[in-house]
Structures
1.
Amino acid sequence: MPAASPAPESRAAIVRDGIGVGVATGLYGTSFGAVAVASGLSVAQTCALSLLMFTGASQFALVGVLGAGGTPMAASLTALLLGSRNTLYGLRVAPLLGWGGVRRVAAAQLLIDESTAMAVNRPTRDLARAGFLSTGVAVFVLWNAFTLVGAVAGTALGDPRTYGLDAAVGAAFLALLWPRLSDRRNRLVALAAVAVALGLVPVAAAGVPVLAAAGVALLVGVLSRRPDPTEIPPTARRRPR
Amino acid sequence: MIWAAVIGAGVGCYLLKLAGLSIPTRVLDHPVAERIADLIPVALLSALVAVQVLASGSSLVLDARLAGLATAFVLLLLRAPFLVVVFGAALLAALVRLVG
């Protein structure tokens, strides 16, 4: 796939790019579906999660913590903490999109990494909306369709450990983390978070070590002085292949 | 109980999105709040990687999952797409279990 140009001129080009991102992102709904049923969710619960939550990292976190024996409360808190970055994306794109009322209520569900990345840096409101909507709708439709495919396939496979699906969860988290690791401070936060979590595994209930690691983010955020804008990870489309 | 988490956290995540589109920008427009929000995914995802790969109940173990993670690391260095990374890691872990 070619890299998206910084600011494609035409609406058609933006919509085409948005659909491209939707296909790339939607396809990995298969891995979410397979991992979720491997973690003990039913097919219906897995699909409900993709429809309702619709934000990949939070979904993987919820099933990951549940699969590791964490309480539903710990799993929910982890998912919500990860979902809080969408609030910041909303602050960034709200003035660009300029939607109110019912449109805003509907658009909110489409507010994710990919739709934000494809809406910012557009020269006009019309083009920002085109980027946001085409990407958001394409990812939503395909992510949900492929979640079902992955969940049904995962159920048919039987014991997930035979196929290494338990190892796939860690790999998924590493892949979601990867674009953020190019920054030095992020790498230090990552190492500290790993140390905190692993240190707590023997003494704390399942799910707690991960939540406690969020304390590292809190501490570094308060103590560090460097100003920086909201990070929007590169989309699958923009990532070089 | 799983349903409660699915519906509760699902609706919660939607409300977090709606809040971002609805509240005035200046409410959260604080450098510290923004830094923390940027760092939370880094800390949580790192901790999730570690716990998913090394924890088994309340003990730390080295098993086929670590081979899977190493595979994912190499595939990411090679800029492989997400699906290749995830299923590549699963495949290697499965092979290690088959042999071991």
2.
Amino acid sequence: MPLSNRHLLGLEGMPAEDIQLVLDTAASFREVLDRPIKKVPTLQGKTIVNLFLENSTRTRLSFELAERRLSADVLGFVSSGSSISKGESLKDTARNIEAMKIDMVVMRHHASGAAHYLSTVIESNVINAGDGGHEHPTQALLDLYTIREKFKRIKGLRVCIVGDVLHSRVARSNIHGLLTMGAVVSVCGPATMIPREVERLGVQVFNHIDDVIPRADVLNVLRVQLERDAGRFFPSLREYHNYYGITNKRLEKSPNPVTIMHPGPINRDVELSSDVADSEHSVILQQVLNGVAVRMAVLYLLGTRN
Amino acid sequence: MNVLLKGGRLIDPATGRDEVIDLYIRDERIERLSASISADKGMEVMDLKGKIVAPGFLDMHVHLREPGFEHKETVATGCAAAAAGGFTAVCCMPNTNPAIDDVSVVRFIRDRAATALGGLVDVHPIAAVTIGRKGEHLAPIAELSETGVVAFTDDGDPVQDAEIMRRSLEYAAMFNKPIIQHAQDLPMTKGGAMNEGFMSTTLGLPGMPSAAEDVMISRDILLSEYTGGQYHVAHMSTARAVDLVRDARKRGLRVTCEVTPHHFTLTDEAVRGYDTNTKMNPPLRTRQDVDAMKEGLRDGTIDVIATDHAPHSHDEKQVEFQSAPFGIVGLETAIGLTITGLVQTGVLTLAQVIDKLSTNPRRILHLPAIRIVEGEKANLTIFDASAEWMVDPTKFQSKSKNTPFTSYRLTGKPFAVINHGKVFRT
Amino acid sequence: MDREALDRTLTRLAHEILERNKGASNIAIVGIRTRGEYLAKRIARKIEEIENVKLNIGSLDITLYRDDLLGKLEQPQFRGTDILFDVTGKDIILIDDVLYTGRTIRSALDELIDLGRPRSIQLAVLVDRGHRELPIKADYVGKNVSTSIAESIRVHLKEVDDEDEILLMDVEEGS
């Protein structure tokens, strides 16, 4: 049974069966990553464009690796964002892609809804690698995979997303995916960084991290955006770290062990202290490895879907 | 012109008239008004059975885009859209290029209007409050008032600075002109693309909180009180704002307001799908806000329905949501949305609708009331309050087609307008 | 073919494999998913009983190597490959239920060679029904059945189906 949608734009509304299919397929792809020849010919002859119109090294590399491991032909289009000033270029870029008969587009863009827009103007399959503050579905899928790998289940687990939820597409995708798979979801952050009416999505809201730690099995810690947020949404990085930073000292206050996740890159000693990032509670490196497998699964499921 | 309007239902709130009556119009004036006028040779007879005849509608919030943005609309195409929408007059907004902050621009627009449809649609310019709409220096309000400018606004933008707002209210009051405010606290809405609420949270779009509109209206009402100046809220959209105006009126202040048809029809749920034709400023708000708009219209707090007709070319709107310009066209769907949303639902009677679209805006702008009596100039809007039709933007007179109402089935269709001895049939 | 006949055939194949490879010291059994996997396990068990050894057994999912992924109406389910031992230097006994066009075996060969460098790859099939489209030959054959393209061979195994049996059907019947 193929995925119900020929694009991957977000996890909002994605049925549990589809998420399950991606996770199961990703598990099979993990094996490929352990082989001496980490390549399979499955997407040979398919051309994939990585349209990264917003800065991102790790996601772009992860996708590129996944695509190459599936023997696809990869084209990269990278822009720092400032030269493509207005959306008209996105439309022209999209039309050019179509004219070149590209099979799939993986796009990251700074505007929410950009992936949705792209899917309406081109025929190729569209994979959203992050659109503004809206969704980052493959990140949430690899987060779900990592959780399932560690706990052997997702249903009933208590997961808290910590940090700047307001601006975070990782948070939104995770909220949708976790709730669909039956987890108990909460968010924690300063009131200025919790989006309006987020409880209506089905999550509990906390403003104090010490209230959360005893009640969580997993903390998914978000990156604090240094440049944009200090001064306007919270006073300083120092205050953020003192009040919301996840440190060993903080974790020790709770009797139950907490698994730490982070989408990366980490601002060490701001949202996460170095000792926690490198401890045995952290699955951050597994997330990276799982990311390639999950992306291979998504590319395979969409690329061979009829 | 030699026209006999036969069998139309005349609803004239000014005289309280609501009856089926014939009108004979010769050249520019109403020659006769009587229960049954027989047609003479040479008279063109318009059968208005089932149609409503009303004093000509005026849309006091229209962006004609000329000079400077003629690819979106011109005075000529905008007037055609107005006439097709059932309006005999519009007020054009000053966010042109150059802005309407100088009499030369006013004269240019009036010249253009005189040749559009033979001058059928009256264009009353609204000039900028500040030079270049920059919010720093007062525009030559006295001089502009003398050239027929009816009001002042920096629309597109608010007058953010309270001191400038205070001084403009004081100054314009000397010439009996209202200051119209686009109420939006800029720092609070920086980067915003839609209403801040559950929908913006779900869609991941930066939000514009309703509080940003309310704080400014609240402040401005206090300034109006302090100065005695006349203040009008443009395109009001929040429930709280309705409360503020209601309260100001109770205290006898010179505060009025308008609402657009989209703000009493759509909520921010319409933004799901990222259609840029649901992006406007102020943004679509919540169901509670829409209900409050209807209640405000019903109890008289909201005086005027004005469209904020904001044309944008297809290419400009065909971009991702965050980059798209704000605004939708509105002249050609106004009557349909008003009848469908307010009359059919029992919120307003037809007479009240005519007040919101004709009597009240003219009063607020100190324009002479339209009198439908023998001897007076004929300035009429004729519409069919029960005609059902489907919105097809390809048929719009407007140069731009940016509307969220494509394929909507509406009740209430403009039929014709008559002004300055000319007729335009939709 | 019924259950007893099938079992005897598998026993014979096990002996043939041992004979040709002069024992079980360097062989490893790899079954092609799905039914080849179960046949592989049965054959491996027989070899282990006969020779009193423990064999390396693996399962190969050829989905990623298929040459017909894009034409299929139903996306095949990808279960994954499970080969936990090193194939390099070994004599791999590849096992599948039915040998037909040879394309499945071609995919399996490509995948095995991506996993390492076996000393040899030998093919054992339960049924060879002819109509090869590629130059592929089985080393060990359970039964040769000449068929027309309008027919199909169904192998049912207790592990997944209700019975052990091999059926020859017309294509419309069983589709």
